[in-house]
Structures are given as structure tokens and as C-alpha cells.
Amino acid sequence: MFSNFSLDKLTTTLTSAAAQVEESLKANALLPTEGPSALSFQKASRMLQERVGVVAPEDISKLPESYTALERRSDALVRVLRRLLLVTKTYEIEGYDYPPNLSESLNDWWTQQPADAQSEEKKKKVQFSKSFAAAIAKSAYESEEHLKALRAPVNGKAAAAAAEATAEDETEEPADEAEEEEEDEDLAHLIEVFGAWSKVFQDIDASKVQLDSVMIKEFNARAEKMVDGDYKEVTKLRAKVEDSRLEFDTVRHDVKVKEARAQAEKKDEKPKSEEKTETKTEEKDEKTAEAKDEKTTEAKDEKKDVDAETESEDYKLLEKLEDEFVSNTTAAAERMMEFASNSEVIQLVKLFQQAQLDYYKKCTAELEKNMAFLNTFDVEDNE
């Protein structure tokens, strides 16, 4: 179906159409021939021609290699920052590390126990955040409260029964009494273990909240500023460079066309008249011809003056646009050098690593302290 398709034909057609539209607008006085509007239209037309590839490469001003290298580096850096933010934005999601398979029904298992199995302390619930560390802390805390309920009298009847049992126990052997005390002591130790376990992970969770805050308010904020603020500024400056290049190339092309046209007109000038004869008739004709030549010469001189003035204005405009092109290129290059500087990126990485280091140091310290506490219990190692 597309066997006869030719990209060159399409390019030629587009260019021809653009040229025809431009000539038609000029012929109908719809296109301004002077001023900023004319330059804007010519610039847009040239941009189209460059994009379809009909402008010769040598007619397009080349930016310095150092400038294009800065462009590539800036673009690469912003892709790196966006890739990092894709991960670190996770810190802004509440409960991002909360186990997805940990259902609330399981997490609140203790609340399903009989009311008389809950102590007064259990009813005073401690608030926990939604994180993995907090989930562990909450599980240990509720386990501690459940164990406390085993040794606490639930109501008045239970207290009376306990007092009666104590009176009867006075007649029992001391061995039984010692055994009960040992059981109470074991339960107390277990309660301590779960209480300490819960406290450790509450502290770890608090450290995680601090880590999240640093990542959100400092790391993410600085990275987003580089992407949404600094890089956008770089993009605007680069757009100004491209715009000034197009203007300069457009006017330069226009000047070249005018110069070529002027040279062609010189070649088409008629040679001087042949030498006149000495006859009176010829002298009269010669005088008439000379008068005509003088008028023609005056007209040509006036045209030359106008052309020279126009040419001078064109060169002044070309020089002005060249200065703007150089100035805009310099400004954009300087801003890209600042943006793509290693120092800002390395500072970001240091901030990330320091926040992680502080968090894991806190976790290590809390776990070491808890292990020292657990080692005070004389338990047999089954391994």
C-alpha cells in the first residue's frame, strides 16, 4: 500500500507549500514585510524548514560542543533525580512499610477476648502509628496486657475467693507456697520481657518517624526544587538560546538573499552606449541620450543610496542579533554549569545516607540495650 511513499517527496511538498503560503500572503499584503511581526513569521517559517530538513546544515549556526555537553549532562541529571524521587516519594505515604497482609482483625485480636479478661490498664489504649515497627510494638504491648490480666483480680468476687484461698493455703506445706511464688515470678518476668519488647519498637518507630520527616522535608524537597525549579529555569534559558539562534539565522539568510539579488542586478545592467558620430543630428541625439542617461543615473544613484541604507540597517540588526545569541548562550551555559554541579548532588546523597545512618544507629542501640536486658534472665539454650 505504501510502496510508492517517499519521505523526500513529502518534505519537498511541505516546503513548497510553506513557500507558496508565504508568497501568497506577501502578494495580498497580509504578511508584514518589516518590523518584529515580519521577523516572527520568517522565524517560524525557517523553523519549519529546519525541522523537515530542507535547510543545509552549514546554514544552521552550530552551538559550541561544551554547550551541548552541558545540555546532555543537565538532561541526564534530571532523569537521575526523577528516578530517585520515584522511590523516595514513598516516604510521604502513611504506613508505607505496614504489612499489607496484616489485617486489622488479626491485629486487634485481643479486643475479641471476653470482657472479664481485660485489665483496667488494657482499656487505656496506647496510640500506635501505622508502620511495621509500630505493629510489632502494639503486638508486644497487647501481649503484656493480656499476661497482666492473669494475675489481677477481675472483680470483687474474685478478690474474696483469692482471700479465702490464701487463708486455706496457710495450712498447706511451704513447698506449695514456694511453687506459687515461683510461678508468679515467672509471669512477672514474662510481663517485663513483653513490656521491654514493646518499648524498644516504640522507640524504633519514633526514630522512623524522624527519618521520614528528614526524607520528606529535606531530601525530597531539595530534589523536587532541582527538578521543578532549577531545571525549569535552565529549560527557559535554553529556549531563549534556540529562539535567538533562529532569529540570527533567519536575518543572516535574508541578508545573503539580498546580496545575491544585488549582484545579479549588476550583471544585468546594459553596457554603455556606443560612441556617437560627429554629425549635428548625431550630436543632437547624443545630447538627448545624455539627458536620459543623467536621469537614469540619478534614479540609480537614489536606488543605490536606499539599498545602501537598507543594507546598513540589515547589518546592524544582524550584529545586534548575534550579540543577543552569544549573550543568551553564555547565560544558559553558566546556569547549566551551576545546575549540573557535582556538589549539589553529592550533598543530596550525603543527606540521604546520614539520615539512614542515624536511624539504623538508633535501631542498633535500642536492640543492643534490649538484648542486654534479656541476657539477665537465666534461661537454658535448647540448641
UniProtKB/TrEMBL annotation:
It comes from the Eukaryota. InterPro entries: AH/BAR_dom_sf, BAR_dom-cont. Residues 166-185 have a biased composition (Acidic residues). Residues 159-185, 252-312 are annotated as: Disordered. This is BAR domain-containing protein. It comes from Maudiozyma humilis (Sour dough yeast).
